[in-house]
């Protein structure tokens, strides 16, 4: 019994998931918030079953797991009532606490943890600015300008911290929680009428950081190629969003 | 030397705050997110100085404390670099960890903590629906309907938990984090052309909960009367937002 590797749609019956007490991960393969959870699962080597959800036409039964229909969701079938958790950062902190593994990814010091959580939130303005750019070929004039101004915060912060990772000498929670968007930015080389890349003069340390993080084992196990992201974005430009192309050869 | 009890505006110089290492709390007196931080300070009896910020015309110097100009912010002058924390839930968790006092307000169990954080997030749809209603006399038709549907979640949850508080037998983090909006709902008795109150048949347990929480010491020390909230809302209806009326006699 295995769960089909495809995004479940409206009208498709609930997949049969093995009743083996193994954690269940509900995701859309291109969703950056879902990828946060996937990175935690990979970094902590947590066994799990994966169920893909079509976000355009959600299967009716998905609301039983995620009451607002959002991904990611994590179901814990080994616990009484088989509870489900949603919200990527809540899931990340829960997995970090329950599966400490070799080391914790969140800082133990309350102040550093608070500062890291605030830094993760500081990506929101960059995400808000770039999101419409992902899904068009000709972005509005100010979008990339606003995006770059929001990213300056991260160049400044990695420079100030003076460590290879935001987490210090080792990869940490900020690195994993912001990575999914840095994985997607290079797709703009392929999707925009005027190809776009991050300016290596403006973001030297951030681009070094990006290269370093791209070599992390959990990231390598999770990331999709920029060309695959670009292909997905193009299906959205054309109003024919195709989630399953994540599973097709490039 | 004391800090004036008024909202600091654009053009007003930075107040002189005693250099006594005491925590500094930046707020707007009617901001429900700020109130979350204030409730934590009151519940934990944490000494602090309060600086009020005019959100319509923010003082130029405020960006030094809160880079996006948001309230609440908490500055920690006793720590190296005098760091500032923002985001109400980040502040709440930091204060709970650093000032455990008699007891922690966040659950110690990672699963219960995750479930409580998700429940706090579930108030967002109710807040989004009611926010425009606070600032008009004739709300759009669906606003109150959507608001009530979103609140059903909380009636169901308090009923399911079967305890007087969301936190159990004692008040806890969910109770404090959602309270500020429940403090403001009764203002709709006074502000709407067609006065509005929560239906006691639809929300019996939630209304009992509200009454109970309104008697909590930290809540009593923090809450403003529904009529004061209504008066503030009216100044916004009229485009003459007056934050300082929080300090005037009703």
From TrEMBL, chains A, B:
<keyword id="KW-0560">Oxidoreductase</keyword>
<dbReference type="GO" id="GO:0004364">
    <property type="term" value="F:glutathione transferase activity"/>
</dbReference>
<dbReference type="GO" id="GO:0006749">
    <property type="term" value="P:glutathione metabolic process"/>
</dbReference>
<dbReference type="InterPro" id="IPR040079">
    <property type="entry name" value="Glutathione_S-Trfase"/>
</dbReference>
<dbReference type="GO" id="GO:0045174">
    <property type="term" value="F:glutathione dehydrogenase (ascorbate) activity"/>
</dbReference>
<dbReference type="InterPro" id="IPR010987">
    <property type="entry name" value="Glutathione-S-Trfase_C-like"/>
</dbReference>
<dbReference type="InterPro" id="IPR050983">
    <property type="entry name" value="GST_Omega/HSP26"/>
</dbReference>
<dbReference type="InterPro" id="IPR004045">
    <property type="entry name" value="Glutathione_S-Trfase_N"/>
</dbReference>
<protein>
    <submittedName>
        <fullName>Pyrimidodiazepine synthase isoform X1</fullName>
    </submittedName>
</protein>
<dbReference type="InterPro" id="IPR036282">
    <property type="entry name" value="Glutathione-S-Trfase_C_sf"/>
</dbReference>
<dbReference type="GO" id="GO:0005737">
    <property type="term" value="C:cytoplasm"/>
</dbReference>
<dbReference type="Pfam" id="PF13417">
    <property type="entry name" value="GST_N_3"/>
</dbReference>
<dbReference type="InterPro" id="IPR036249">
    <property type="entry name" value="Thioredoxin-like_sf"/>
</dbReference>
<dbReference type="Pfam" id="PF13410">
    <property type="entry name" value="GST_C_2"/>
</dbReference>
<dbReference type="InterPro" id="IPR005442">
    <property type="entry name" value="GST_omega"/>
</dbReference>
<comment type="similarity">
    <text>Belongs to the GST superfamily. Omega family.</text>
</comment>
């Amino acid at each position: 019994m295995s769960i089909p590797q495809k995004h479940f749609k409206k009208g498709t019956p609930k997949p049969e998931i093995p009743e083996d007490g193994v954690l269940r991960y509900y995701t859309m393969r291109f969703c950056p918030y879902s990828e946060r959870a996937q990175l935690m699962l990979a970094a902590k080597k947590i066994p799990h079953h994966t169920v893909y959800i079509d976000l355009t036409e959600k299967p009716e039964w998905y609301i039983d797991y995620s009451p607002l229909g959002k991904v990611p969701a994590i179901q814990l079938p080994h616990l009484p009532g088989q509870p489900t958790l949603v919200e990527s950062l809540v899931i990340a902190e829960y997995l970090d606490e329950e599966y400490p593994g070799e080391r914790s990814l969140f800082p133990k010091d309350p102040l550093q943890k608070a500062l890291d959580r605030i830094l993760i939130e500081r990506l929101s303005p960059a995400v808000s600015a770039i999101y419409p750019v992902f899904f068009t070929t000709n972005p509005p004039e100010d979008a990339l300008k606003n995006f770059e101004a929001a990213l300056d915060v991260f160049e400044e912060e990695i420079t100030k911290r003076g460590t290879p990772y935001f987490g210090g000498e080792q990869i940490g929670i900020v690195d994993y929680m912001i990575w999914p968007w840095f994985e997607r930015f290079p797709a703009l080389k392929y999707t925009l009428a005027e190809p776009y890349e991050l300016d290596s003069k403006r973001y030297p340390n951030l681009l070094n950081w990006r290269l370093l993080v791209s070599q992390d084992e959990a990231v390598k196990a999770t990331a999709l190629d920029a060309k695959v992201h670009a292909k997905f974005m193009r299906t959205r430009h054309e109003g024919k969003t195709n989630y399953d192309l994540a599973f097709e050869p490039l």
